[in-house]
Design brief:
By secondary structure, the protein is mostly helical. The protein contains 29 helices and five strands. It has helices at residues 7-16, 20-30, 38-48, 53-61, 77-85, 89-110, 116-126, 134-153, 157-169, 175-178, 180-196, 200-213, 217-233, 237-250, 261-275, 280-284, 292-311, 319-331, 337-351, 355-371, 378-392, 395-398, 400-412, 415-431, 436-452, 456-472, 503-519, 523-540, 549-552, and strands at 35-37, 65-68, 71-74, 484-485, 491-492. The strands form two sheets. It has a three-stranded antiparallel beta sheet. A two-stranded antiparallel ribbon has the order 4-5.
Amino acid sequence: MKVPENVATFITKSFDRLPSEVLSALVVLSCFGASADISLIEVLEREIKQPLIAPLEAAVADSVLGKKDGKFFFMHDKLQETAYSMMKPEERCLHHNLYGQALAFVVVREKDDRYLLTAATQINFGGPQAVIDDNQALSVANLNLDAGKKAMSTSDFFSAHRYFNHGISYLRSGHWNKQYDVSLELFNLAAACALMNAEHERLKMLTGEVIRHAKCFEDKFRAICISITLLLWSSKLPEAMQQISLTLSSLGEELPVAVTQSAIHYQLDHTKALLAGLSDETLLSYPAMSISSKIMAMELFSKQFINYTFTGDCNAMPIIPLKMVQTSLTYGMSPLSGVGFALFGNYLALAKGEVEEGYRYVKFALSLMKRMPSIAHDSEIMYYSAHTRLRVEPLQSAIEHYIVAQRGAMASGAVRFAFGCAFVYDNCSFWVGKKLDLVVNSMKETMKQMIFYKNLVMLGLLRPIYRLSLRLTGQSDVHQRDDLTNIFGETYKEGEGIFSKLPMVMLTECFAKFYEGLIFREVDKARDSIQQYLSIQSLTMVNMSNSGDFFRIL
């Protein structure tokens, strides 16, 4: 239908000729936006005992509404705004609350969550001021908790965060004492979504609340882990490592401050002795890990491995997979046991040269992942497992494993592993000879996401190869030195801050410049870069040759 230029006149005439029953139905429809499913309106009509379908059909006949694909919709946005404005401003919250409560009752009564998100959204439009008492406020908080979980299950972390935040807003004074369980879950899940959505100030407030009010260490653990991840993303690795060490100590676990080669050899021999004679089938039949302190320790071991990677502490890195495998064999398997076995397989194949045995444990890690699937950790297992697969399987096809892992990581909210997968994929795509224009476009998209999430660590690793790719395609031979701001508001230029502190970032920069110098016959650049590379390597213990294949790809 063509809307006349004088929309106000058209709307006035359209509404003046409508019966009051039709106007009332249009008001209800306007609360749901520009359109609503007819099936939803039918349910609402039954629950609030107000005629809706017939009056709305009359509005269709008068060309105020349209009807298509199972929906009623306003023929113009001004029509919806006018219908909505027929309610007094102070009464709108009551209308939204009424319709949301009616749909929420259907969700609970029929155990059908089709209208869960709509119910929560309507009640949230009404806001806490429309809630009649403490019992209803608690019910709405739980409804938002369920709605947020449903949104998370579809990887919609922005909507999930809104639902969790709304749920928190309905908690009354003293909720940490009176509604402890729902408070803890709402705050933890809101913090997880805030991390995913790069809303870091909100994250710090949420985790701080949990740590202050949690009744036991187990209840604080999720907030502690999120805080550690925040430190890692911001390149505050010493603080992250210290926090992990302190938390491990409170769990009765210790990692050695200084790791000697003799200690690694002893632990490796001990691990191999524990595994001797155990088939994959036997390992897969191990019971599940049930001691909470060991489950938490496994997660911290995994996080510390990442810290060791970026600080270049190659001597300490092998102790992590050895500890994780030993813990799994002693206390049972957990979803993170797959991470431990994948890292152990990488160590054997890429550092010790035991490729066949290492490949076996990498494949076992994937089998264990299928037996004990975990949305939180599956992408981590796929990411680490792909490292040895690069050595054994054809490179051009093996790098595609990182894309599979990257998609799984983004879907689960494991952003750091999504970036790890994207970085390795882009890097390997460059070295295996994929078309450079495709590589550059992929890198641009990856870096855009890294900047959005303020993940300067991974960004610092990718930028050198990106600049080299640009120059090889003739797009630029002088890169712009962008200022970058990390999670804590600190601004760095390349050559400063994170870029001058992390060995892996510095070595990647030097290697890219060395290769660039060779390609473009810039001998002085190549010589200076390799000398700087060797100097950093000798000072930091990072080895990016021979057994360093294990560490280079991490």
